[in-house]
Amino acid sequence: MKKNDQVYGVCSGYTHDGHGVVKIDGFPLLVKGMLEGEAGELVVTMAKKKFGYGRLMKRSKTSSQRVAPPCPIAKQCGGCQLQHMSYAEQLRFKKQKVQDVMQRIAHLDIEVQDVLGMQDCYTNYRNKGQIPVGVDKGKTVTGFYRINSNAIIDTDTCLIQSERINAVLQEMRKLFEKYQNAKLFRHLLIKHAFFSDEVMVVWIVRSFQIPHGKEMVQELTAALPFVKSVILNLNVRDDNVILGDKEQLLFGEHAITDSIHDLKFSISSKSFYQVNPRQTEILYGKALEFAQLTGKEAVLDLYCGVGTISMFLAQQAKHVTGIEIVPQAIRDARKNAALNGIANIDFVCSDAADYAKKLCEQGAHPDVIVVDPPRKGCDVQTIDSMVMMQPKRIVYVSCDPGTLARDLKLLEEKGYRTEIVQPLDMFPFTHHVECVCLIVRK
Fold it and tell me: Is 213 a domain residue?
């Protein structure tokens, strides 16, 4: 098999990121946009030792699960990879993706639950937009990066962002064109609190000196009264990190307020907060269900962020301790606990692994441990410390099935058993899937 070879094949499954897999005499070709069961003529675009990439030239058999992508820039944008799949097929793909890593990486003989999908509407679900800003041939461009590129696909609307985020983006584009200062901007970060309908706009800039910045704030907030906060964030780094360390408040408050299941949350520019509020309530409800609290338990919540899961747990636990390394998130978490009148909770600013090790050395034995780590999962020290504390149950919330499977394998080897793997669709149209797992001591 070599580049530019033309072949005919049938798609037999998917990769972890939703590419179709076509095997030609046992050699797998990965084909973007091809659905399972479809057949057609392909051209090889790259051939490696064990697999290659192909492009579908002519489709001779079409899956009943194929739909027309609802977004006009679906083929160029790198954000949503599954718009050509029906929603039912997206959920089937995500379940199989989780099932595959449970068998291949974790070596677990466990039946993954059906994915909990969104009901009815699964567009405009995101409460956060991170939108690159640039200038191309003298014209302001905003949008999203082209696949495998730093080139910006120019757009003023995103299918999965809330309508208010899109409204802010459209207004900011008018201001950029009016004042011709877009070259000083790197990104727009826009957060929308669905319950209160408040919006925060963060200008991520290369300099605190923004010509006509005051006029832009006045015109933005006059045109869109739901904008309750405008913040200037300075980022002079030469990498892909979005937010810098220094900020100035230009308008309103440093935070906006949202609510999930009667709990209020203060959200700042740097707060981690789940991007799909409708599904977040279901996710946290599952975590609470798996924790099986009776009111007598001591709970440890590692990677607690702004305390969202912690406060759900505190309503049914004796005491909760939340651990988070980001100082601003801990400040928000403490503020959130006070905002909701929750006293049986403490928040500690620390690296999760270091604090878990410290608790081990102190002989702590929480009844339940909840972990919601970043995409890289838990490190070995954290897992070892959790095991040494001997909780009855561990509830693991994960945004990456691969690292989740790796960690479940380690926990199995160290005396714990995975009882339930429940995927949940937090990110329709993308290949990402969230999971919450119940793990018990053998």
Answer: yes
With a pLDDT cut of 70, the percent of the chain lying above it is: 100
β partners of residue 248: 232
- The two structure tokens encoding residue 109: 């003989």
Together in a domain, 112 and 133: no
Residues 241 and 291 both lie in one domain: no
Q: Is 204 helix (H, G, I), strand (E, B) or coil?
A: strand
Contact between residue 44 and residue 27 where contact means Cβ atoms under 8 Å apart: no
Q: Is 11 helix (H, G, I), strand (E, B) or coil?
A: strand
Per the DSSP assignment, residues forming a β-bridge with 440 are 393, 417
Query: pLDDT tens digit string along 361-397?
Result: 899 999 999 999 999 999 999 999 999 999 999 999 9
Output the pTM of the full model: 0.92
Helical residues (DSSP H) of 209-291, grouped into ranges: 213-223, 277-291
| CA gap 418, 144 in Å, rounded | 38
- Catalytic positions are 399
Any binding-site annotation on 122?
A: no
**Is 330 found in the same domain as 241?**
no
Q: How far apart are CA 269 and CA 326, in angstroms?
A: 12
The verdict on 361 and 433 lying in the same domain is: yes
Q: Is 120 annotated as a binding residue?
A: no
Judge if 187 and 322 occupy the same domain.
Answer: no
324 annotated binding-site participant: yes
- Reported as a single tens digit per residue, the pLDDT across 324-361 is 998 888 988 999 999 999 999 999 999 988 999 899 88
Is 362 known to sit in a ligand binding site? no
Q: Are 33 and 20 in contact (CB under 8 A)?
A: yes
